[in-house]
């Protein structure tokens, strides 16, 4: 929001003075833990919490992802393998789901495991309606926060950061 306000003021020829409310960036996280039952995502550094976020999950938030299209958020150990700045959801961090074990389990059931599991912001153009998404599980299996939060998370989380998603 500060960036939009700054850009608007600059476009109108106004002088922009640095705000005392400007956020300082977080330290670099070396791990992420998601607790599905509590709807929390925790950024960690050296085992200590840096910041906790309230998250929205897959429409069927309880239970392990079994296959493509089941709307469950996966559980297990993964890695943030890339940042997607051209996302349909403001910005996203790709989670390395499916793991070899996930693929093996899906193959045993003769179903596709699915993929494209992300930590992401709101659908593009919906940032102003963030309040409507708060406390609602609405994703296809991803982990969602508001746009300001995904920007903060993306800045603090480098590619290769491990993520553990707990039930």
What do these coordinates show?
With about 170 residues, the chain is of the alpha+beta class. It has one domain (about 25-165): L,D-transpeptidase catalytic domain-like. The chain has 4 helices and 8 strands. It has helices at about 1-10, 100-110, 130-135, 145-155, and strands at about 30-35, 40-45, 50-55, 75-85, 90-95, 120, 145, 160-165. It has an 8-stranded mixed beta sheet with strand order 3-2-1-8-4-5-6-7, covered by helices on one side. The protein is globular, with a radius of gyration of 17 Å.
The shape, in one word, is globular
Strand order of the largest sheet: 3-2-1-8-4-5-6-7
Helical stretch count? 4
CATH class assignment? Mainly Beta
In CATH terms, the superfamily is: L,D-transpeptidase catalytic domain-like
| Average pLDDT | 84
Could you estimate the helical fraction of the residues in percent? 10-25%
Tally of domains: 1
Strand content: 15-25%
What is the C-alpha radius of gyration, as a whole number of Å? 17 Å
Summarize the helix and strand pattern as letters. HEEEEEHEHEHE
**Uncertain regions: pLDDT < 50 for 5+ in a row?**
1-22
Described by strand count, sense and barrel closure, the largest sheet is:
8 strands, mixed
Based on the coordinates given, report the CATH architecture: Beta Barrel
Report how far apart the termini are: 33 Å
- How many E-type strands? 8
The secondary structure category is alpha+beta
Determine the CATH topology. L,D-transpeptidase catalytic domain-like
């Amino acid at each position: 929001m500060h960036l939009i306000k700054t850009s608007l003021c600059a476009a109108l020829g106004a002088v922009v003075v640095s705000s005392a409310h400007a956020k300082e960036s977080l330290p670099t996280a070396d791990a992420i833990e998601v607790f599905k039952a509590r709807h929390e995502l925790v950024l960690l550094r050296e085992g200590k919490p840096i910041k906790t976020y309230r998250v929205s999950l897959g429409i069927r938030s309880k239970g392990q992802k079994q296959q493509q299209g089941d709307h469950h958020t996966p559980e297990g150990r993964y890695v943030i393998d890339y940042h997607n700045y051209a996302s349909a959801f403001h910005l996203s961090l790709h989670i390395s789901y499916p793991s070899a074990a996930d693929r093996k389990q899906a193959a045993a059931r003769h179903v596709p495991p699915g993929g494209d599991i992300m930590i992401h912001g709101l659908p593009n153009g919906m940032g102003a309606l963030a309040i409507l998404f708060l406390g609602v599980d609405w994703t296809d299996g991803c982990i969602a926060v508001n746009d300001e939060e995904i920007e903060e998370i993306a800045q603090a989380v480098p590619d290769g950061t491990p993520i553990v998603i707990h039930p």
